[in-house]
Each structure stands twice: as C-alpha cells, then as structure tokens.
Amino acid sequence: MMEHETRHHDGVTVVELRGSAAVADALALRDVLGSHLAGGDSRVLLDMTGLRFIDSAGIGVLVSARRRAEQLGATLALAGVNGAVARVLQMTRADRLVQTFQSVEEGVDALSKRSSGAGE
Amino acid sequence: MLGVDRDEGAVTGVLTALTLAEELDPRLDAVLDAAADASELPARFIYLTAADGRRLHMARARSGPVAIDQHSPSWAQPGSVTSSTTGEGASEATAAMPPIEMAIDQAREQRSMPTAAGLMHALPLELGDELVGLVLLGPLKDGGQLGGRQRRRLSALMPALAALARQAHREQTLRDEIAALTSREEVARRLAGSTLEVDRLVTVLLDLAVRSTRSDGGFVAVIDAQHADLSIRARTGLPDDFLDPDFSAGHGAFDWDLAGELGTLGLRDIEWASSNGIDSILAVPLIENERPLGVFALVSFTNTETFSEANLALLETYSEQIRLMLDNSRLFAEFRRRYLDSLRGLATSLDARRPHTVRHHMHVGEVATSLAERLGAESPEIESVGLAAAIHDIGLLAITETEAFAADQEHPLIGAGMVEHLPLDPAIGEAIATHHEWYDGWGFPRGLRGAEIGRHGRILAVAEFVVERIEAPAPLGVGDAARLVSELQLRRGSQLDPEATDAAVEMIASSTLPAGLSQHLREDEGT
C-alpha cells in the first residue's frame, strides 16, 4: 500500500512516497504525478526514502511520467533511493532514464538552481 | 595332515572363486567361506580398508540366523568382555548388523567383539604392516576362545585371504572408477548436446527462479531475430486463464524502446496486470552488449512484498544466467547459419565445375523437398530433406580429381562429417551419408538396404537420380519424361525406394517438376 505527501521547497514540488508502489498502487501514483505535471509543476522531485518496494508497474509509471515531463518542459527526478527500490531501478535500467539524487536536500538544491539558472 | 589338506582345499577354493568371479561379492564370499572352513565357525561379515586408509567399511554381510546388537557396536577391549547373549533362534527379521564403519587404529587392535549373537572373533587381514580388511567369525563357543588348531589354520590362511581380498577390492575400485568416468563423460556429452535446447533450459532456470524467490510464476519472452518482436518462450506457474501480455511496441503491455540506448523496461498496461490478478510483477530486460534479447518476468499473485532485496539478488543471478544462455544460443545460431551458408556456397561452386551440373544442388533440393511434401512429411522433416539435398555432394570438395574412385566411395561420409558437429537434425547428416545407398543393399559406402537407409536418404537418392537423368549429357540424359518414368520404374525397389519413386513418377506425370528441370525436359523432347 502506497502513501504519498506533497511539499514545496524553493519552487520544487517534493512528493514523498511511502510503502510500496506495485500493481495496486500504480494507478494512484500515475494520477498523483499526472496531476502535478498537468497542473504546471515544472520541477517534481520524488522522495523515495520511505518507499520499501517498487515493481515494474511502478517503474512503468515513472518512465511514462518522465516522458510526459520532458514533453512539457518539466523535470522529474528521484531522491533517497535505497535498498530494494535502488536494486529494481538498476535491474530495470530506470536509473539510466530518471535522474536521482542522494537526498531530498541535494535534489531540491539542484532542481531549484537549474530552474532559476536555465530560466525553465 | 588333515588340517593341511583342509587349508590347501580352502585356498584352492578361494583361488577358483576369484578366478571365475568378476564381481566383488562372490569373491568376498569365497574369502568368508575359506575363513569359516578354517575356523569351523560361521563367517558372515568382512570389512575392507577404505580408500583414505583410515577407516574400514563393511563390504559384505551374508544372511544367516545371527543377531548382533546394533546398539552396542563398540569393540571390546582385550579382557573386557563382560556379557553376551546368544542369538540362537533369532530370526532374520531381528538380525542386526555390526557397525558399518570403524576406525582403522581401533580395528587393528581388536581381536573380539561382543554382540547379541555372542562373542565374535575378529580376524585382521594383514599384508605386512598394511591392514587390508577384517573378517568377523562366530559366535565363539564355550567361553569365547578360538581353539589352538583353528588359530593356527587361520593364521596360515590369513596372508592368502588378505592378498585375495585386496586384489578383489582393487579390481572393484577400478571398475567403480571406470563406471564413474563413463557416467561423467555421458553427462558431459548430454550437457554439450543439450546446451542448445534453449527453451527447456530456460524453463528450468525460470522454475528455479520462481522457487527461490518464492514468487508464484513467471515467463521469459525472447526477441525474434528476424522480426524483432517478442514472444513467450518459457513460462511457469501461470494459471491456465492467464492472458499473455501484448508485446507490441508503442502500445503493448511493456514500455520498452528496443531501439533506444537506455533499455529501460517498465510495465505500461497496469490494467493487464490487474485483470490477471497480479499483485506485483518484476520484469527485467535481458540485454547483452546493448543488444536486447528478451524479457525475464516474475509475478506474484498473493503478495506485494515478495521481492525482498535478497530475492532481488537471486532474481538478478537467474536473469544473468538466462541472458547468457540466450546470447550463446543466438551466437551459435548465427554461427550455424553462416556455416551452412558457406556449405551452400561451396556446393554451388562445385556445381559450376561442369556445364551440366550448374544448379545441380539447387535442383536436387527442389525435387527432394517436393517429394517429401508428396510423401506427407511434416515441415521440419521437409526442411531437413531440403537442407541435406542442398549440400549433399560437398564431400567431393575434400577429394582430388585423381581420386575418382575414392571420391565416389567416400564423399557421402565426408560430406556427412562436415555437418555432424552441428546441432542439426541428425537425419540431415544421415541423408548425406546414405544418398548413394541402394534400396536393395547394392549401393555404397556401407551397403545399407531398405529401412536401414533413413527416409531422408531414400528421398534424396530418388531426387538426385531424377535430376541427374534430366541434366546429364547424352547418352545418360533421358531427354523426355516418358523415358525418365521408365528409368525410375526400372529401378523401383532395387536402386530406389518404392514410395519415393512413386512420388517422383507422380510429380513427372503431373508436370510439377521444378521449372528449370521441366523446361529442360521439354527442350530435349523436341530435339
């Protein structure tokens, strides 16, 4: 079961995910990310620190959200990836597609600078 | 003298038994018989020294109404025998065995053993300082002492018994080693042959992956090299009503850009997973040197948390093994394709040596394929016949012009040898090897007859006969269809297989010979 909570830091939308992101949670995750991107959030950082597990359904949502963000000129990145989640990202090669940061702080810092510097 | 005669008779009996018996047990029985004869006591157990030289193990236990207490198998210290009970009347059902193994140092020191059947005398079989084995005799009578006469006879006989027991043991050990080597060679040979049975082995790995990760099922989908699309090649644990995923690019169940550099794989069609009752699915791309090979997926129908980090490590291991297997298979298939292309090219160049044999292999292939179809062969057999026909004379390349006779005699086997190392249908090599055999046994190189010649070879023989008779220059060339049919019928059942001959006659009668050949016949008909 996945839970999520959204915060905003320095113009970056931080979506904290907790629990697991498997088949039963994938549609909810898609809705959450879709609503942020469609709502104009141009810098979305997913805080994966509290996520225990993600399967291919969750990965699929990240892949499509990453593509959607690119189409909209937005940025989607991950932070706090660890344990089984890190391993799944590596095995499915999602780590090559989606930018990841060690921590939320690092991610917020990088995305906020990129935003202001690039004028995105 | 009586004792000496008895000893000599015992040794002679042992020698005879050892000479005649190939197996170990009869030889050990002969040793036991000789010891029993000399001691006048039953002898039912013999131990032999194990290969490590530190233990003795029981090599032979003969049946008999002797019960030995398996709960007190320890060796008695000299003079420490305290009690024993006889086993008189003990049934076979209650008979127990002495210890199966014992330490050699312990065995070397002991001369008796208390058992439920009574005190047993232990006769060490020694050759110099070497303890070869040990025989248990008994139960001893009247106070547990072996008589002096029996001791002397056993002592005199012991070296011979020891030598013979050791010889028998060594021969058996050698036989066991040979059997083990043969077994290993057989296993290695089968494995070598089976490495190409990719689907079966991938299924085995998939099954192991499912079991070790405690998931419920899974599948391996492989990319078809020619069509660049995915299809399931192995599956396990999926219910009968499981709906296979749509692997179409762009809108299929999986989001995987096969042409892309990143190779990221995710599940796009969440509804597909939900409708199949999947709680979680882990699909891993199988990629070798940036070349996508397939998808390895495990599913859980009952537990979202199936894939712990430890299970993911296992999954990664199996994924690696499946990837290697698929890639090796792909490489080998590529090698096989190129090798066969080379052989076809060589066959074509061989045909080009003479004007009347240009396109010979191609025409034989066409006729052979058509005959196989007419004879009701299934698709794989038809393909095998066609391939054999397309390269059937390549053995001629290995023989010089000056070896005309040898060329005729040997080229079928040489040609077969050029493909036998490939994992092809064995009938292909066999067809090449037998295409000059005659149905009545008068062909070459092996003089096979009838069903001894495989069907592929019999079809190929008829096909080559037809093509040669049409394309050969006069006077061997038949010129017209009627004469060709006549020639075929003349050889039906002698040189040529009757059924394949009938099929060829039908083909000619129905004017369905390959275009190049039928045209040749018509042109000759008019001359």
Summarize the structure.
With 120 residues, chain A is an alpha/beta fold.
Q: How does this structure look, described?
A:
- Chain A has 120 residues and is of the alpha/beta class.
- Chain A is 48% helix and 32% strand.
- Chain A has one domain (2-106): 2-Layer Sandwich (Transcription Regulator spoIIAA).
- Chain A has helices at 23-38, 56-72, 83-91, 104-118, and strands at residues 2-9, 12-21, 43-54, 75-79, 99-101.
- In chain A, strand 2 (12-21), helix 1 (23-38) and strand 3 form a beta-alpha-beta unit.
- The N and C termini of chain A lie far apart (35 Å).
- By secondary structure, chain B is an alpha+beta fold.
- Chain B folds into 3 domains: 2-177, Beta-Lactamase, CATH 3.30.450.40; 198-323, GAF domain (Beta-Lactamase), CATH 3.30.450.40; 352-526, Hypothetical protein af1432.
- Chain B is 48% helix and 15% strand.
- In chain B, the strands form 3 sheets. A 6-stranded antiparallel sheet of chain B has the order 3-2-1-6-5-4. In chain B, strands 8-7-12-11 form a 4-stranded antiparallel sheet. A two-stranded antiparallel sheet of chain B has the order 9-10.
- In chain B, helix 5 (198-213) runs antiparallel to helix 7 (309-351) and helix 11 packs across helix 12 (455-471).
- Chain B is flat.
- Residues 65-96, 187-195 and 523-527 of chain B have low confidence and may be disordered.
Show the helix and strand layout.
The complex is a heterodimer of chains A (120) and B (527).
Chain A: E1 2-9, E2 12-21, H1 23-38, E3 43-54, H2 56-72, E4 75-79, H3 83-91, E5 99-101, H4 104-118
Parallel strand pairs in A: 2-3, 3-4, 4-5
Antiparallel strand pairs in A: 1-2
Helix pairs in contact in A: 1-2
Chain B: H1 2-20, H2 24-39, E1 43-49, E2 55-61, E3 101-103, H3 104-109, E4 112-115, E5 118-127, E6 130-137, H4 148-194, H5 198-213, E7 217-223, E8 230-236, E9 254-256, E10 265-267, H6 270-275, E11 280-288, E12 291-300, H7 309-351, H8 360-374, H9 379-390, H10 404-417, H11 426-434, H12 455-471, H13 481-491, H14 498-509, H15 515-526
Antiparallel strand pairs in B: 1-2, 1-6, 2-3, 4-5, 5-6, 7-8, 7-12, 9-10, 11-12
Helix pairs in contact in B: 1-2, 1-4, 2-4, 5-7, 8-9, 8-12, 8-14, 9-11, 9-12, 10-11, 11-12, 13-14
